[in-house]
Design goal:
Radius of gyration: 21 Å
Number of strands: 0
Number of domains: 1
Largest sheet: none
Length: 230
């Protein structure tokens, strides 16, 4: 990852979200975190439609540049930033709703007010774990899409379809895979080994886009594994 400094979150943080490149990077990050945010917002009994509508409002606020004005490397992982930001967005949303019920207006607090102030969040709740679990699934899905595209471009789409189960823990017998691909079993073993290595690289590359430093990637990878194991 020699080009680590150009990954999405560091680009957004360094440019403070103002130039076209950082705005494009932010848009990609928001797209990647859409499902985790919807999963979090659906935890309080909202319907999926209601959760998606609220998620659209949340990300529209971010994309409009109203929450990253103080973005810096020190903000840490984008996953943590988004979870903190959506919590404060939700709290503000509730406050405005309550104010409307009382017949008055409520001051609209920018999303980065609390997060940039270093406000400590409570220990991880079930809602937080649901967010992180959906985040982990999203990272895995994006890594699989990357590998699928690579093999398809290399003319090996069939290899991915047959060998993909060994990446998701549901592999058939290697003998059956060898027959389907017209390969020897030993060649299939080598192909599976290489595919797993490439999958791990693809997952780490996805994670690298969301952390402030290369040294954070392995910690975030361990967190992903722990989330999926839990």
């Amino acid at each position: 990852m020699s080009d680590f400094a150009a990954t999405r979150w560091t680009l957004v943080a360094q440019a403070r979200g103002n130039d076209p490149a950082s705005k494009a990077a932010l848009s990609e990050l928001c797209d990647a975190y859409y499902k985790p945010v919807v999963a979090f917002l659906a935890c309080e009994g909202r319907t999926q439609d209601a959760a998606r509508e609220l998620a659209h409002e949340f990300f529209a606020t971010i994309l409009a540049g109203k929450s990253l004005g103080g973005a810096e490397r020190g903000r840490g992982r984008f996953r943590s930033y988004v979870l903190g930001a959506v919590k404060h967005f939700l709290a503000d949303h509730r406050e405005r709703a309550n104010a409307e019920k009382r017949g008055g207006g409520a001051e609209n607090v920018p999303l980065d007010t609390a997060t940039s102030a270093g406000l400590s969040l409570p220990s991880q709740s079930d809602d937080d774990r649901r967010f992180d679990r959906q985040w982990a699934f999203t990272i895995i899905a994006r890594a699989l899409d990357t590998i699928s595209s690579e093999l398809r471009e290399a003319g090996k789409a069939a290899h991915f379809l047959v060998l993909k189960p060994w990446l998701t823990g549901a592999g058939q017998s290697q003998a059956e895979a060898a027959v389907q691909l017209g390969m020897s079993e030993s060649a299939v073993k080598v192909a599976i080994h290489r595919l797993r290595q490439r999958f791990r690289e693809a997952v780490k590359a996805e994670i690298a886009h969301t952390v402030p430093a290369e040294s954070d990637v392995d910690d975030e990878l361990r967190h992903l594994v722990a989330v999926l194991a839990g």
